[in-house]
Amino acid sequence: MLAAAAVRRRVLPVQLTPYQTPRAGIGHNGGPTLDVSWEAWLWRKASAAVHKPPRRDIALHRLKRAERLGLDYRAYAGVLLNRGTHLGAAIFLLDGLTAHEMQNASDRIAAIPDCHILVGSNDDLDPALTARAAAVTATADPRALQRAIDRFILDHHGTPSGTFLVGTTSAHLRAAEDAGLALFLWARDYFRAAH
Questions:
Q1: Dist CA 87 CA 75 (whole Å)
Q2: Residue 152: which domain range?
C-alpha cells in the first residue's frame, strides 16, 4: 500500500530563483520570463513614475543650475533622483594640475555663483580663487583632509548628499566615498567639459 502511494506522488523540481527556468524549447526566443506578479507591476509603475521626463520648466531650471555648477544635466539629475537633494556645495582638490590647468580651474571655480566652495591643494593658489572659496585646506594628510571636509559641510549647514567633489587622485575619490558625498568627478574631465 505504501509503495503504491509513492508511485502516484509527483516530484516537482526545486526552483531556486524565479529567473532559473527550464531550457527553452523550440520557438522560444530566449528572452526573460514574463513576470506578471503584483510586486513586479508595482516596481514597473514606480520606476516609470520616477523616470518620466519632468515638465519643461523644471527641466530648464535643473539644466540652468547644472550649468552654473559646471555639471551636465544627466549628472545633476542623477543626484536628484538618487539622493533627493540639490547640490549646494563643491569641493575642489587640485593637486597635480599643471600651471595652465590650474589657471583654467581657478577661472572656472571663481565664476561659479551661489555655491559654497572648499579648495584643497598643497601648491600655491591663485588669490582670486582663495578669495572666492569659503575654505582652503591642505591635502597632504588624508585624516586632516577628511576632517576639513566634515567641518566645511557642518559650517555651511550642508549635507554630504548635497555636496560634490572634484579631485585628481584616487585618494580624493576615497575621501569622497568616506564622506558619503553625492558625486565625484575627475578634475581633468570637469574642467575640460566646462570649456
A1: 11
A2: 86-194
CATH of the domain at 138: 3.40.50.1000
Q: Which of 19, 30, 77 lies closest to 51 in space, CA to CA?
A: 77
CA–CA distance, 166 with 164 (Å, rounded to integer): 7
Q: Cell 539644466 belongs to which residue?
A: 63
- 139 domain-assigned: yes
End-to-end CA distance of the chain: 86
pTM for the model:
0.73
- SS3 for 62-87 is HHHHHHHHCCCHHHHHHHHHHHCCCC
How does pLDDT run across 13-63, given as a tens digit for each residue?
555 555 555 666 777 776 767 778 888 889 889 888 877 888 999 999 999
